[in-house]
Amino acid sequence: MRFKDKVVLITGAGVGIGRAAAVQFGKEGANVAINSLTPANGQETLKLVKATGAPAIYLQGDVSVAADAKRMVDETVKAFGRINILVNNAGIVLPGRVDNMSEEDWDKTIAVNLKGVFLVSKYTIPEMRKVGGGAIVHNASVVAIKGVKDRGAYTASKGGVWALTKAMAADYLSENIRVNSVCPGTTYTPSLERRIQAFADPEKARKDFIARQPMGRLGKDEEIAAAILFAASDEAGFMNGANIAIDGGMTI
Length: 252
Hints:
It is a single chain. This protein is an alpha/beta fold and 252 residues long. It has helices spanning 16-27, 39-50, 66-80, 103-130, 152-172, 190-198, 202-211, 221-232; strands at 7-10, 31-36, 56-60, 85-88, 134-139, 177-184, 243-246. The chain has eight helices and seven strands, in the order E-H-E-H-E-H-E-H-E-H-E-H-H-H-E. The chain starts with 6 loop residues before the first strand and ends in a 6-residue tail after the last strand.
């Protein structure tokens, strides 16, 4: 098993890509710390991970709040003794263009998607130093590479994650801490389904989301999770500062 006895902290693991990654890490021998803002979702992921036989804990908290971010890290170390892998997966999508988006929605998007990555990384890196290194994987987005309509704040936040990946990789290379990101294309998740249902014609919206995918289908949680696990594994030991597009060909 690739992650036997490794300790992984995953933010935003209550549903979707984060949940899929948590379960896959569990199957591959990791000790898994699961963060979700919503307790019911986090507890369900916890149950699924424990069903793999992996030790796991649930950590409620908001990644955009410094005290919560520090507590997640502290409780993970208290439970498992260390942190070897961090997956910064928590994120939100609030549609809007620069001219019609509220300042509140802009600030919230940047706080969760970018500041949250900063905060959880800030408190995790000292713990990785104690064990001689580690691997950090950020979940960015295809919008960090390719412009998408009606996603002003989301694009800015994920472009920031893309750039921060490079900065962190340069900063911590000498300390044996690798930092990479995945950039998913449109992936079928509960978040996407909520956005689809918010349209006046959900079925048309569903077809439109699929139509913009060159492969003619949406991505699957497990496909993105598989790339996250690869980036976190020793198999990717020579990969640092990479932003991996898993987008069904959107950025060809």
